[in-house]
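Quick one, T. Sequence first:
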Amino acid sequence: MIATIGQRGIVLLIVAAAVPYLNALPNDFTLDDHGLILSNASVASFDLATMWSGDYWAGYDTNARSGLYRPLTLTSFAVEYAVFGPSPLPYHLTNLLLHLAVTILAWRLFLRFTNDNAALWGAALFAVLPGHSEAVIAVAGRADLLATLASLVALWIWSGARTTGSTLTGALCFALGLLAKEQAIVVPALLLCIHWWQHQRQQRTWHWQPYGMSALVTLVYLLIRYSVLGGVAGLDVEPLDNPLVNLAGLERMVAALTVATRYAGLLIAPNQLSADYSFAAIDVSDLPLLDTVAGLLLAAGALAAAWRFLRQPDTFGLAMMWLVICFAPLINVLFPIGTIMAERISYAPSVGYALGCGWVMSEARRRLGWPLLRSLGSALLLVLAVRTAVRCSDWRDELSLFRAVVAVHPKSAKGHKGLATALADVGRVSEAEQHYREAIDIYPRFDTAHYNLGRLLFGTMRYDEALFHFERACVLRPVHAGAHLNRGVVLFQLGRLQQAMEATRAALVARPNWDMAQDNLRDIEAAHIRVQAADRRQENSE
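Structure tokens:
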């Protein structure tokens, strides 16, 4: 009987996790997929040295200082690129299989804390949550999938058998999670909650070895991270990506709590989804008062949940603690991170949400009766699965994706810039120009939008306008080699050869040994010599 339930559960979870995302398999690469895969030299050449000894973005931009270290994720991309090349289908399929593995593993872990039906309903809910779409559909979401999978395996092992082998195996999985994405750092805190639940509910004795191993793994990881990145924490955060960095102290914490309430909406009522929440999709200078009150209540609720779990641990309390622990380092309250909000961030925390929902449904079963609960639960899963399937079409390509972003957040600077780029790629130049200008109006310091608009204007031979935007890009980001190079090209077209040489040399300072810049500089210098010679001949003839 138990085996039959297990087999049916696995079939149900395979259907729930896979079917809503089948519509995503034909999708193209989008967003960070380009920089991490298609334009990543280390991935294309299978350069393990660069992937394991450099910044996450070093293969795309040698000057990258993102403060991210995720070599395992990059290695998975490199393996696929070596086998399949730049075809997106295998990458999407891998992400789908990872999501399926996480779903089944979450179910098996839930069975340790609740009954069969609650565990199955919870895992099925996790499988179809629309908020997971970014982590599963965007190939770059692989980092969240790998980190969550490795974290769940470590927790599964450490909360089960208590042998030396299991302790070491769990430590290996924890290490792999950290090397996939930094968020796995919360595993020891989650394990502490699980062990406390087991100690109080099952009278299990404490097993301290995993904590010693997790401390050792964390120390080694931080030392490696410090050696590679030159620091433990992340580097400077761009206000464009996270406007909260413009706020300080208590003001930032309150605003961050206000924004964090949107994650609750993302889990409970995911009717509006977006691939971007950056400046000014969320206006941190004018946050609704009710949302601020809700944020403060959310913080109070988290403290109350922790106090209740400490005094009387139960499954619902464990689920709430999972949410609190996973979200705590990601919502900009303790410290600012690289984004104000991102749907992919909810992937690992929602394991706790799913466990809590499964427990609630189990409790409702006793009061409402199984037939009614089954009907309501099935209807909920179907609605969420359909929403997820529909969301897949938004990620079909960059044009579809950024149209969806701008529709939800008309004030998103990155949304307008992304839509402009997608429109330019299909030859719709006038529309692209309009959206580039909209992006710059929203965020005047948007160097990439200035640069892209400059290239667009150069293509229509509006050289003076193009020069203005290239110069703005150079001022806003002095290390932008492309902006300096293209400024030199425009100056050359305008006959300002001395300035063109200076601009091209600036490009070589920002990006030494750049073949294109070196070729341009030789051409400009040769033209300058010809002009000087012509001037001398004219002077002599006079």
